[in-house]
Amino acid sequence: MALNPIYDCDVSDKATPYRFEREMVAPIVSHLPSIFEALKGQRTLLLREQAIGAVVPDLLFGIWSGDLPRCSGLNLVSRQILAWLCVQKKADSAELLSEHLFISEKATYAAVSALERLGAISKRTSGEVELRPEFNISESIYLVAIEVKLKRWREALLQAMQYRSFADEAYVAVDARQVRITADVRAMFVSSGVGLFLQSGRSIEKMIDAQARTPQPSVERLFALSKFATSGLYCLA
Q1: Which of 177-183's residues contact partners 24+ apart within 8 Å by CB, and which partners?
Q2: What is the Cα gyration radius of the chain?
Q3: What is the pTM of this model?
Q4: Which one of 53, 119, 149, 166 is most buried, counting C-beta atoms within 10 A?
């Protein structure tokens, strides 16, 4: 792959600066299958402006194989327990879960019962609580979050850095005709692990690759995954 791959579609030398951020979205969407290639048999889905905790990525793109675990309908305590079990795999008892997560025993017992009904965990007669492998949220889906801005790259970078807590890759997309990428700007993106797209008309250049990493299981990542598991038809597949 070229150092800075460029994805073109009806490119015009007379392309003018974008007026609105929403105008930038369609070219990105059209190029997503080329930029993030799914393997044969994998499923992909694009979500627009979905709130994940306190942040709202402009685009959230998921790639996965098989069926996603159904995590919808869980309250915050259930999500916290499920995220904790994705790391620890099992707990000797619900009481210990309560101690580890600083949650009341009453709330913990109710959450464990909900997760057991969902099929996310198994509870043994000894009291041990264990996560079922198919509900390991860290390995279920590959998430790419993208923040789109005309020229406010600093603001976009700060937002994208927050996306790294739940996304495997985070990117900022800016209008190439309104932002000058200096060595200092490039260094800030590289050091933060956030990637950068430059758009000009319907041409998109991947200026900086995002640092790919699978985040630790968290309530935010679980919530993001559940958005894909309950979003109906798969698109861009």
Answers
A1: 177/15, 177/16, 177/17, 177/18, 178/17, 178/18, 178/150, 178/151, 179/151, 179/153, 181/207
A2: 20
A3: 0.80
A4: 166
pLDDT tens, the chain, 237 aa long: 456 776 554 444 456 677 888 888 998 988 888 888 888 888 888 999 988 888 999 999 999 887 777 766 778 888 888 888 887 888 888 888 888 888 999 999 998 998 888 888 888 888 898 988 878 776 778 999 999 999 999 999 999 999 999 999 999 999 999 999 999 999 999 999 999 999 988 889 999 999 999 888 888 888 888 778 765 444 333
Cα separation, 26 vs 202, whole angstroms: 9
| Beta-sheet pairing, 129-131 with 142-148 | unpaired
Half-sphere exposure of 61 (CA within 13 A, CB side): 23
Class of domain 6-67+140-216: alpha beta
- Rounded to whole angstroms, the Cα distance separating 97 from 142 reads 28
Residue limits of CATH 3.40.1350 in the chain: 6-67+140-216
CB 27 within 8 A of CB 9: yes
**Sheet strands side by side (includes 90-91):** 90-91, 129-131, 121-123
Distance, in Å, from the CA atom of 142 to the CA atom of 39, rounded to the nearest integer, reads: 12
**CATH 1.10.10.10 in the chain, residue ranges:** 76-135
